[in-house]
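Q: Got a minute? One more chain.
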Amino acid sequence: MVAKPQIFVSGNSDHLQGYDRSKVTIEEDSWIGGGSIILPGVCIVHGTVVAAGAVVTRSTEPFSIVAGVPAKPIGTRLKRLDRADRSSQVQGGIS
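A: Always. Here it is, folded:
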């Protein structure tokens, strides 16, 4: 059986008693893997990558890679982004 990938962001449900209505924030340049669950009040900050199936219970650090249940940092994107920026500057892409 093949299922369509889904991302679950909790929020906006009035019928659950004791439900937390805190907003979920997803900032620019962030990637969210399929089947991920992001709990209320969490901020996925600039450049974060959330692995497929992760359950994010806390806000992330900039340019981090998080995975697992609950999601924990497993790496960073900084080195890879720095390399890409330098190569585009050499080619004249960024002034």
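A: The two ends are 50 Å apart (CA to CA).
Q: Perfect, thanks.
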